[in-house]
Amino acid sequence: SQATKSASDAKTGKTEYRVQFLISQRKLPANSKSFKGLSPVKEYKDSGIYKYPYGSADTEAEALRIRAQVRKLFKDAFVVEFKNGVRVK
């Protein structure tokens, strides 16, 4: 079935960890002052809300180091996991 196929693809795909630090009701420009100098910032849309993660790590430990840096600017930053470019919930 299609559902099973995508589930198995997600298991075998590349895992990437990013640090999400900001959400917005509207799309922000790539050079937005809201990012406090973080660059490059990625963007994804979830349930109509724009979400902004920074950094990219292959391991959770590496992502936690990035999070520590980002938390100096955004105290609520947290690690999010992506598989094949799609947010894992």
Strand numbers in spatial order across the main sheet: 2-3-1-4-5
Spans of at least 5 consecutive residues with low confidence: 1-10
Task: Give the helix level as a range of percent.
Answer: 10-25%
Average pLDDT metric: 89
Strand portion = 25-35%
Shape summary: globular
Count of individual beta strands: 5
Question: C-alpha Rg, in Å?
Answer: 14 Å
Distance separating the two termini: 21 Å
- Give the ordered list of helices and strands: HEEEHEE
Tell me about the biggest sheet? 5 strands, antiparallel
What would you call the structural class? alpha+beta
Total helical elements = 2
What would you say this structure looks like, in words?
It is a single chain. The chain has 89 residues and is an alpha+beta fold. Helices cover 25% and strands 35% of the residues. The chain is built from two helices and five strands, in the order αβββαββ. It has helices at 2-12, 60-70, and strands at 15-24, 44-46, 49-57, 78-83, 86-88. A five-stranded antiparallel sheet has the order 2-3-1-4-5. The protein is globular, with a radius of gyration of 14 Å. The two termini are 21 Å apart. Residues 1-10 have low confidence and may be disordered.
